[in-house]
Amino acid sequence: MIPVLDWQEFESHPDAFVTKLGQACRETGFFLLQNHGIPKTLRDDVFAKADAFFALPRAEKAKVSILNSPHFRGWAKPGDESLDENSPEIDTKETFNIGYDLPEDDPRVIAGEPFRGINQWPALPGFAETMRAYYDATLNLGVALHRAFACDLGLPADFFDHAFDEPLAALRLLTYPPATGAANEIGAGAHTDYGAITLLMTDGEPGLQVKPRDGDWMDLPHVPEAYAVNIGDCLMRWTNDIYVSTPHRVLPPQNRRRSVAMFVEANPDTIFKALPGTGAAKYPPIRAADYLMSRLDATYAPKEVT
What we know:
The protein contains 8 helices and 16 strands. By secondary structure, it is of the alpha+beta class.
């Protein structure tokens, strides 16, 4: 059972909200979040701009290929990524990745720091402006959710704030083609997310499945206007396994499926180690940037597309 939470309850009845949130993070690692405050007009514009990009000719999209970027920004065609690196299945999705936006003359960009590059933008009117606005809005929601996590974990409400002011967070536009029936196709292979949390908005087309640690694969229900929120590996490590990062996958859909994911990641130098009061550490400390790089290196190891 995936719980449905109302974000406005955190303002009106914070103790009740935090209790429900904590249970969801401990048991399923997934919940649906209503009344989140992200304007529908902005969300609709993001989907419209994503549709316009994915409709471009392949040669035009290739000009902003993620394979041209050492910072994992830009377009990934089917087969560029394999979320389940242990499976022969090929991810059929197309994606476009957007990171923390920096100008070309930023000292970190000039120095070539990992994950501190410029975004690649297609030549579509308003595309960059819309994506920047959505990135900022969902990042702010992600940071606010961490204040609720802090309350649940018995920490000061602003405990996590400093870790997300120049984050590794990534906005990802996704489109999945209809299933062809090929034996080795999967929309997105089984995986856990890498960062702190993910905020996912979909068009309602089925396909996303979740595998609770004590159960079988189950369809994630669709609640119109709600975000699907899930715990990532880094928040699981940070909470010393109090919260769970749950495997999920996308089956090849019957119809084209679209989604927009905001991966809320911490600042590059944030050290993930067991939070105070969580007992003996189950994981060695690791920098956020180092953990992310280890996962992305596996994701982009090539597979042959047949």
